[in-house]
């Protein structure tokens, strides 16, 4: 297990740091409007640049080398799935003049609703007629250092969907990029959804201002923290923006949709495959709901000695994943935090329930939701999607549950990405 975990976590870091942004020689800044500013625009001219970052995910999740042995199972259990060779082939066919990317700053709100300038990254398929099929909201997975946020990296794995004819926007979230001086309200559904939706509106305005003819297709995608963010975006759109945004489909991968269920699983099994996320979760609720918790009272052992490194945003995911050797909850949390009835823990659980995504809202009739999770996930407990699936089955949405034994969290990500890419490739 330890070798698999280390292998998987290294894969995350390789994907995260595979591409760093270099300033264009011109480094021009687009005219500022009331809601956005786009800078550091550059062109991604070779498909190999994008293929390379995706290939790293496949190789280091071990999916790339073992794809032939699991291909039959995947085709049977995962809709739209295509092989890496098929994906790369169709990507080259659709590449054309490539795509452009840039850093976007836009007007939004902080976790308490105050005006704030957030940041993120945009991608646009290059076309001579400036016609695009639509816009994709992509939500990034868990990061630790500020250098890992989308605005600091030229390419994210999700951008492999852009060459199929789309514009894509990916928010840094509060606490990264232009708001690095703020606490990151990790897994706060409302703050995360607000960041992504406001980024979408800024992107839409940018495209209009620059003469793009954008079709009606809208998609909402993400894995891991990004999966929770995707579901959060869908909830907020349903409740507040249903007259302005309609998603053709939301691809929701392995998200921690219920903090309380995640807590119960970690404590009950005395195990977490991602120790560095534990202080992020506690601090996220502490920050979001002003709980006044002293994290020195929450953690013990090596986590007590190092949790401030996790929250500093100065250390990479790879460094932090290798730093922690203790995966048992009983070696991470104080006895008080292991007890739900303890006053300190009860405050945390109350906040988690306020933040609950499972069973707290109802999607529109016919809303198309692709819900993916590996039952063998070693980082985000499968119970999150299991409970979400049960809740959504009692609604009138169009639910596509893709649950199966797809390996570790990172292996699941590779399969999720190949399945999602297959949908866009086949729909073309």
Question: What is the strand and helix layout of this fold?
Answer:
Layout: H1 2-17, E1 36-44, H2 47-60, H3 63-77, H4 84-95, E2 99-109, E3 115-125, E4 131-139, E5 166-171, H5 189-209, E6 213-223, H6 225-240, E7 249-253, H7 259-269, H8 277-288, H9 301-311, H10 317-323, H11 343-354, E8 368-374, H12 383-393, E9 398-404, H13 409-427
Helix pairs in contact: 1-2, 1-10, 2-4, 4-13, 5-6, 8-9
Q: What features would you describe in this structure?
A:
By secondary structure, the chain is an alpha/beta fold. It is built from 13 helices and nine strands. Strands 1-2-3-5-4-6-7-8-9 form a nine-stranded mixed sheet, with helices on both faces. The longest helix is centred in the middle third of the chain and has 21 residues. It is globular and about 60 Å long. The chain starts with a helix and ends with a helix. The N terminus is likely disordered.
């Amino acid at each position: 297990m330890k070798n698999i975990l280390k292998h998987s976590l290294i894969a995350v870091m390789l994907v995260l740091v595979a591409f760093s942004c270099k300033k264009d020689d011109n480094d021009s800044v687009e005219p500022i409007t009331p809601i956005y500013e786009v800078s550091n625009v550059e062109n991604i001219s070779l498909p190999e640049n994008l293929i390379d970052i995706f290939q790293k995910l496949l190789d280091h999740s071990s999916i790339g080398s073992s794809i032939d042995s699991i291909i039959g199972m995947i085709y049977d259990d995962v809709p739209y799935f295509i092989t890496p060779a098929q994906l790369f082939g169709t990507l080259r066919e659709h590449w054309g003049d490539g795509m452009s990317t840039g850093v976007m700053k836009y007007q939004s709100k902080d976790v308490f609703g105050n005006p704030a300038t957030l940041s993120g990254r945009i991608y646009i398929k290059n076309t001579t007629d400036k016609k695009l099929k639509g816009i994709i909201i992509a939500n990034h997975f868990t990061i630790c250092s500020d250098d890992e946020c989308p605005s600091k990296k030229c390419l994210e794995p999700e951008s492999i969907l852009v060459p199929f004819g789309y514009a894509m926007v990916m928010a840094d979230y509060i606490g990264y990029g232009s708001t690095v001086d703020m606490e990151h309200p990790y897994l706060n559904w409302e703050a995360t959804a607000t960041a992504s939706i406001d980024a979408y509106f800024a992107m839409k305005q940018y495209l209009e201002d620059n003469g793009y003819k954008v079709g009606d297709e809208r998609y909402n995608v993400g894995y891991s923290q990004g999966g929770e963010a995707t579901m959060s975006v869908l909830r907020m759109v349903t409740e507040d923006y249903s007259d302005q945004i309609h998603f053709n489909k939301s691809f929701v991968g392995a998200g921690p949709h219920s903090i309380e269920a995640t807590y119960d699983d970690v404590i009950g099994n005395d195990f977490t495959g991602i120790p560095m996320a534990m202080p992020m979760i506690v601090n996220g609720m502490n920050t979001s709901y002003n709980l006044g918790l002293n994290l020195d009272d929450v953690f013990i052992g090596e986590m007590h000695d190092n949790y401030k490194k996790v929250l500093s945003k100065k250390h990479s995911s790879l460094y932090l994943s290798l730093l922690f050797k203790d995966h048992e909850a009983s070696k991470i949390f104080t006895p008080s935090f292991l007890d739900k009835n303890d006053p300190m823990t009860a405050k945390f659980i109350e906040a988690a329930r306020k933040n609950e995504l499972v069973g707290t809202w109802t999607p529109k009739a016919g809303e198309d939701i692709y819900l993916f999770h590996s039952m063998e996930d070693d980082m985000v407990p499968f119970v999150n999607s299991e409970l979400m699936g049960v809740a959504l089955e009692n609604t009138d949405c169009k639910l596509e549950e893709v649950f199966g034994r797809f390996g570790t969290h990172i292996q699941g990500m590779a399969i999720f990405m190949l399945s999602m890419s297959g949908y866009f490739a086949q729909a073309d």
